[in-house]
Amino acid sequence: MTSLNNLAVYSDYFVAALLIGGALFMLVGSWGLAKLPDFYTRLHAPTKASTLGMGATLLGSLVWFSVQEESLHIHELVISIFLFLTAPVSAYMMGKAAIHRRRPMAEGTRNAEEAERAAERKGINDRDD
Amino acid sequence: MNLIWVPLLPLLGCLVSLLLGRYPRSTMALGAAILPAIALGIVVSLAPEVMSGSNPVVTYDWVPALSLQISFMLDGLALMFTLLILGIGLLVILYARYYLSEADNAGRFYASLLLFMTAMLGVVLSANLIQLWFFWELTSVSSFMLISYWSHRSDARKGARMAMTITGAGGLALLAGLILIGEVVGSYDLRTVLASGSLIAEHSLYPVIVVLVLLGAFTKSAQFPFHSWLPQAMAAPTPVSSYLHSATMVKAGIFLMARFYPVLSDTHLWFALVSLVGLTTLLVGAYTALFKHDLKGLLAYSTISHLGLITLLLGLDTELASIAAMFHVINHAVFKASLFMAAGIIDHESGSRDMRKLNGLFRYMPYTATLAMVAASSMAGVPLLNGFLSKEMLFAESLHQETFGSLSWLIPLLVTVGGALAVAYSLRFVHDVFFNGEPIGLEKTPHEPPRYMRVPVEILVVLCLLVGVLPDLIVGDLLVAVGASLMPAGVPEFSISIWHGFNIPLLMSFLAVLGGVALYRQRRHMFNFQARFTEVDPKLAFEHMIQTLVERARSVQLWLDNGSFQRYALWLLLMAIAAMSVPMVNIPHARGSLEVTELDMVALGGALLMIVASVATAMLSHQRLLALVTISVVGLVVSVAFAWFSAPDLALTQLSVEVATIILFLLALYFLPQKVSLNHLSPGRIVRDMGIATAAGAIVGTLTYAMLTRPFDSISSFFTENAKTGGGGTNVVNVILVDFRGFDTFGEITVLAIASLGIYKLLAGVRLFVPAADMDGRPWSKDSHPLMLMQISQSLLPLALLVSAYIFLRGHNLPGGGFIAGLITAIALIQQYVANGVVWMRDRGDLKFQWFIVWGLFIAFASGVGSWLFERPFLTSWFDYFYLPLVGKFELASAMAFDLGVYLTVIGATLSILANLGKLTTTDRPTRPGRRS
C-alpha cells in the first residue's frame, strides 16, 4: 500500500514537471510564432516547440491517468503518434507552399538561392536533367 | 355486396381497359363495360334498402386523429346520381365503341373514362368532406385528360387547360369552404355535418362558407360568369361531351348544392345568390345557344341554360323547388346525353357539325332524325315528354317564390322568356339540321350509323317517353328518396303527373312555345342584331389572361428568386425576424427563473474567441481563404464548447463535420473567383445588411438566453432513464439515434443518400472553369503529390481506420457511433485522394461510393425488418451480453447492425460529394451516360 502511495507521490512530481515543461515549450512556440522575422522561421516555432510541448503534456496526462485509474492509458499515446506524424508533414507542406509562392525571406538567410531553385523546379516527376 | 366496390370496380376497369389495349374494339368495350356493369348491379341491389329509408355506409379509419376516414354512403341523392353515372356511362362505353376511329387509342380513352367514372362515383358517394374534395379534384383531372384526348389539336389542349383551370380554381375555393364547415361543425364526417341542423347557418362564418362552396359548385356546373369553359370543352370527343358535359360532371356542382342543401340553404343569402346566378345563366345560355352554328356549341349553351334552370330551382324558396331541381337533373341528363350522341352520329356520318351546311338530313338518316327530334322536343318542353314535366314544375314553383319581395313577379316572367328561347333553339336544331332544304357542301353523303351506335340513343329516348308518360311509376319513389336527403325534416307530399288541369303554369308553357316559334320565325332580325357585336373567342381571351398572369408571376418570381444566395438569405432572415419579433415582444422578461451559472474564464475566453472569429469572417468575406480560416476557428470553438459542456458526442460530430466542411469549402473555392471586390456594393446596401444581421443576431441571442434561463422539461429524462434498460447502452445519444428514434435516423440517412445522389447528378457532366493559376497569376505547382505527404498519408490510413472502428464499436456505451465513425473513415479516405491523387486511388481499386450508400441503407433497413421475424414492430432492437475468453464480457445489440448501416451510408454520401467534387478537375469526373467527355 505504501509503495503505491509513494508511487503516486513521485508520479505527481513527474507529472507536474511534464506539465510545466510542456506549457513552457508551448509558450515559447507561441512567442516564436508572433516574434520571428519571416514565414520560414515562424514555421519552426509551432512545429517544433509546440509539438514538443504538446507531447510533454500528453505524456503527463498518460502518467497521471494511468496511476489514478491503475491501468495503462494509451489514448494519449495514439494522439502523440498522430501528432508526431502529421505536424512535420504539415510544416513540410506549408514550407513547400511558401517557397512556391516565393514568400520573402529574412535578411541573411543562408542558401536563399536554393529556395529559388526549388521554386523553379518543375516537380518531382519531370526533373529536367 | 360492400358499397366500397361501387367506386372501386370502375377503377379496376381502368386497368382492364389499359391491359386490353391491343384487343379488338368490341372486346375492349366489353372489358371496359363489365366492371361498371357489376357496380351498377350492386347499386340496384342496394336500391330497395335506400328507398326504404336506411342508408348503407362503409367506413375505414385512415387518420382517426384528424378525423380522416375513407367513408362511403349511399343515400337517396347519391343513389340517383350513381344510377345516372353508371347507367349513362355504360351507354357511352357502347357508343364510343363505334364513335372512335381506328387511329384513336381506345384503351387510353376507356381508361380515362373509367377513371372519371370512379371520380364521379367518389364525389357522390363520399361521406367525408375531405374525401369528397379529393374525388372532386379527380374529376377535374380526369376530365382534363378526356377533353385533351385528341391532344394533337390546339383547341383541345386549350379547352382542356381552360376547363382544368376554372374548375380547379373553384375546387380550391370549395376546399376552403369544406374546411371551414369542418371547423364549424367539428367533424369532416358528412353525416355529422348534415345532422348539425342550423349550426352552420347561424355561425358568423356562414357567408364565407356559402360563397366558397358556391364558387366550387358554380365553376363546376358552368354557371354565369364561369360558364365559358364548357363550350370550349366541346373539343372533346362527343362521347365525352355526352357523358361529362351533359349528364354527369357538370351536374357535380348541382350535386354539391343539393348535398349541402339541408344545412346551407334556407337563408336569404343562399336564395338570392343561387336564384340570381341560376336565372342569369338560364337566360344567357339560352340566348347564346340560339346563335351557335356549331351543333355541339348549341347543345353546350343549352346545357349551360339548363344547368342554370336547375340552379335557379335550388335557389327558389318554395317547398317543392328542390324536388323539381332533382327531377330536372334526371330529365336533362337523359335528353341531353341522347342529343349529344345524336349530334355525334350526325358529325360522324356527315363529316360536319356546322348547321349552315347541315340541312335536310331527315331523308338520309330518318331513324336518327326521329330520335333526335323526340329528344329535342323534350328539351323544348313538349308535353308527354320528360322535359315538359320538370319545366312545368319550374313554372309552378317560380310563381310561389317570394325571395325578391315585390319584384318577385319578374322571376316567372323571365323564366317564361327562358322557356321561349329553349323552344326557339330546339326548333332551330330540328328544323335546320333535318329539314330546311338540302345539305350544302358536305364532304360525304350522310347515312345511318351502325346499328348498335344508335342503341344508346334509343334507350335514352325511350326513357324520355316513359318518364314523360308515367313519371310517378318510373321515378316517383326515387324522387321521394332524394327528397329525404334534401329535406331530412320531412318530404312534402307531391305528385308528378302530366295533367294538372288548366292553370297558370300550363299557360306559361303555352306562351313559351308560342314565343319560341315566333322567335325562330323572326330569327333573321335577331341574327342581324347579334352580328353587330364583336365576337370574342373566350379561348383566346382566356389564353391571353393566363399568359399575362404567368408573365406577372414570372417577374415577381425573378424579383424574389433571382439566383443570388444573398437574396435568399435576406428573405429567410426577414421572415424569421418578422415571425419571431412579435412573440418575443410578448415575453415580458428575457431572463427566466433559473439561476444563472457563474462566469468562468474558460467560457469567457471561448466566447470572445468565437465573437472575434465571427466578426473577422464577416469582415474578411471577400478574402475567401482567410475567411475560411476564421470560420474554422468558430467551428473549433463550438466543438470545444460542446466538450466543455459535457456533450462529447456532439463535440466529436462537430469536429468531424467541421473537417469535412472545410474540405468541401476548399474544393468549391477552387472553382470560384479568388478575389472578390466589395466596391460595387452601395453604402445603403451595406447598412441594410448590417441592420438585418444585427436584428437577427439580437433576436436569436435573446431567444437563446430566454430558453437557457427557463426550466426545460422535456422527454429527455425518459431517454436517460431507459437507455440502459431499454436500449442496452449507456451512451444515451447513441441509443436515441439507433434505437429510440431509429426510424427518424433511418429517414435521415435516406435523405442524406438522396441528397448525395442529387449532388452527383448535378456534378455529372458539369464543365466548370478550371483556373490554371492562382490569383496572382502564378501557375500551380507541378509537384501536386509530394512524396512525403503521400507516404505519411498512406501510413495514417490504417491508424485512422482503427480509430474509426474503435469509435464505432464503443458507440453504444461511450461517445461515438456510426455517424462519427463514418465521417472519420470518409475523411481518412479523402485524405488519400488529396495526398495521392485520383489516379492513384483508382489504380488501387476504385471505390464505388454509391454501393456504400446502397448497402448502408439496405443493412439499416434489413436490421429494422429483422425484428418482424420475431414478431416485433419495425426496428425493435435486441441486445444481450456474451462472454468470450481473452475478450471478456461484451455486448451484442441488433442496433449495432443498424449503426453499421448508418456508418456505410455516411461514408458513401460524404465521399460521393467530396470525392466527386474533387474529381471535377480530372478525367475521372462524373459524367452522364453516353456523354463521356
From TrEMBL, chain A:
Residues 101-129 are annotated as: Disordered. The chain crosses the membrane at residues 13-33, 45-65, 77-95. GO terms for molecular function: sodium:proton antiporter activity. It comes from the Bacteria. InterPro entries: PhaG_MnhG_YufB. Pfam families: PhaG_MnhG_YufB (PF03334). Residues 110-129 have a biased composition (Basic and acidic residues). Keywords: Membrane, Transmembrane, Transmembrane helix. NCBIfam families: CPA3_mnhG_phaG, PRK12674.1-5. This is Multisubunit potassium/proton antiporter, PhaG subunit. It comes from Thalassolituus maritimus. The lineage of its organism: Bacteria, Pseudomonadati, Pseudomonadota, Gammaproteobacteria, Oceanospirillales.
From TrEMBL, chain B:
GO terms for molecular function: antiporter activity. Residues 609-674 form the MrpA C-terminal/MbhD domain. Residues 126-401 form the NADH:quinone oxidoreductase/Mrp antiporter transmembrane domain. Residues 685-775 form the MrpA C-terminal/MbhE domain. It is a multi-pass membrane protein. Keywords: Antiport, Cell membrane, Ion transport, Membrane, Transmembrane, Transmembrane helix, Transport. Residues 65-110 form the NADH-Ubiquinone oxidoreductase (complex I) chain 5 N-terminal domain. InterPro entries: CPA3_Na-H_Antiporter_A, MnhB, MrpA_C/MbhD, MrpA_C/MbhE, ND/Mrp_TM, Proton_antipo_N. GO terms for cellular component: plasma membrane. This is Multisubunit potassium/proton antiporter, PhaA subunit /multisubunit potassium/proton antiporter, PhaB subunit. It holds the Pfam family Proton_antipo_N. Residues 789-911 form the Na+/H+ antiporter MnhB subunit-related protein domain. It is found in: Cell membrane; Membrane. It comes from Thalassolituus maritimus. The chain crosses the membrane at residues 6-23, 30-48, 68-96, 108-127, 162-185, 268-291, 298-316, 322-346, 367-389, 409-427, 459-486, 498-520, 568-589, 601-620, 625-645, 651-672, 692-708, 749-770, 791-809, 815-839, 851-870, 890-915. The lineage of its organism: Bacteria, Pseudomonadati, Pseudomonadota, Gammaproteobacteria, Oceanospirillales. GO terms for biological process: monoatomic ion transport.
